[in-house]
Write a structure and sequence with these properties.
The protein is an alpha+beta fold and 126 residues long. It contains three helices and seven strands. A hairpin with a 4-residue loop joins β5 and β6. Pfam families: DUF5594.
């Protein structure tokens, strides 16, 4: 992906993902955009928090990163990309639930089975 599109994703789209996820979670979860640094270090949205509550589902505190497929990001800049992205934002509550089950993450207790989790190669399908 070229630098201009990567920068546009970092500044135009990723902050909206952060905003949507933040609206779904409590303020004790920190969410940040880690900017694109080249082919081996794509844009990441990272969620992290200390574990909460007495019943902790997993051994490690929340430290989850999301990355998207370069081709999927490129598609956001073509016809219909904005509408597709809006549908994706609307689907994020369901996607967060699915990622929890697939990756041994427990958002209510802010815990996970592994010390860090990467959910990568994501698409923008609703």
């Amino acid at each position: 992906m070229d630098r201009e599109k990567a920068h546009r994703f970092d500044t135009e789209f990723a902050p909206r993902i952060v905003e949507r996820i933040a609206a779904l979670l409590d303020s004790d979860v920190s969410i940040e955009v880690i900017a694109h640094e080249g082919a081996r270090l794509p844009t990441r949205v990272r969620m992290f928090a200390a574990r909460t509550g007495y019943a902790r589902a997993h051994a490690h505190p929340l430290d989850l990163s999301l990355t998207w497929d370069d081709g999927e990001i490129e598609r956001l800049f073509s016809a219909g990309g904005e509408a597709r992205f809006v549908r994706y934002l609307d689907a994020l509550p369901r996607k967060l639930t699915a990622w929890q089950g697939a990756r041994d993450i427990d958002l209510p207790t802010r815990s996970q089975a592994d010390s860090t989790v990467l959910v990568g190669g994501l698409d923008f399908e609703a």
